[in-house]
Amino acid sequence: MSNSLQIHKMKKKIIIFILCLVSAGVSAQTLYSSYFLERMPYRHRLNPALINDYGYFSFPGLGNLDIQINGNMALSHFLYPSGDELLTGFHPSISSNEFIGSLKNRNNLSLNIDETILSFGFFAFNGFNTFDLSVKSSTDIFLPKDLFAFLKNGQTGEVTQYEMKDIRAKSNNYVELALGHAHRINDRLTIGAKLKALIGAGNLDARIDRMTMTLSDERWMIQSKGIADLSLAGVTLETDSNGEIDGFDFDTGKLGIAGIGGAIDLGATYKIFDNLTVSMALTDIGFIRWNKNKKAETPEGEFVFDGFKHLGAEDDDNGNNAFDDETDKIGDDLEALFKFKETRASSRSTWLKTTMNIGAEYGILNNKISFGLLSSTRFSTPKTWTKLMATANFRPAKWFMAALNGAVSNTGCTWGALINLCPRGFNLFLGADYIAAKYTPQYVPVNTTNMSFSFGINFPLGTDPKLKNKKVYNPVPAAY
């Protein structure tokens, strides 16, 4: 094979990898740690009824960058130190019980990215108004334990059979334009709503509903039932002599809109007492209609499989460790395992992952300190994500706010922190909903896949008129 052809195939794999891990899945979420801090610019994305202390204008491209990784697959489940070497769980020196025993029956990983291009908020019409232009992308991957058992153990007797279900990768990315308004009904009740126009950039939903593998000394036979949808302008699927998809051509000159959709956010807050406020919101109630769609299904009948020659290979004669390029070789073998044939394409619709947030906050010491409880549920298939977060919020000065929280969810226990600096004419925040305790030298979390990072630079526009009239918090000048 020529070097140019090898490079071409490598580029395709890189594009597939980026599409699966970066370009999509569900709507990414804003920093949950910001929910109870009224000087955090973007908390209205969690509940459109939340009113800030001041208006703001974002630094273009840097107003809000939020990256979140969630899942139950830890790096320590797959990489094992051995002297100066680092081995994967597929290496022969790692026992099957040690590797497979550390995995869940259903292993999942999610990546969410939310980047603000431009955003601002201002006070008018007896409330708080917001404008947002942002790029949102996210991915969900679901892998059963039996898949890793097959990769690790292969054939263990004269005839070995594996039954796998619900192997899935979901991706979805889009540009969002949102207009919001939070309106004060009276001193206790505030309602909010947000309208969103969505421009779809790319979507992938590939799943294997059922896969049966029968391994014998004579042959390995695989039968699967699955379907895949890919919506991305400028993509042409490539097939081999059997009509099976073995790659795609991606023409950047034909990039364009792959889908159009819309969504709404609804929310409300109610002050029960002067120091106790409850709130509730439903966000991302909407869908995207995809027109640039490629469809594929698994072939009928069984096929012979002879891949996975590279897993757990020992050092070669030159002393090169298989881990150096093992991931590339595994990728080659996986291409032989998951087979799809292109079928008739058609338009389709996908729903966003609607999120329900329910919160309660109790303030003490004239609200210099408050304690909050936030329940979040993100509805999706095949897995619904839930989280309960308890947070302590600190407001020692009008230019400095911070929060510290702990949470339990169906992906594990986490803790997070947030610092919000808001001196006159400037706002900078740094925070994370998920902070891992142990990292590799490359800053990859070891014992968990729950981690996040949020950062933003914004400029205040003016103080809430209600604070001026009631002289609360020692109102700052209008130029703040």
Automatic annotation (TrEMBL):
InterPro entries: DUF5723 (IPR043781)
Gene3D superfamilies: Outer membrane protein transport protein (OMPP1/FadL/TodX)
Annotated DUF5723 domain residues: 48-433
Pfam family, one: DUF5723
Name the record gives this protein: DUF5723 domain-containing protein
Lineage: Bacteria, Pseudomonadati, Bacteroidota, Bacteroidia, Bacteroidales
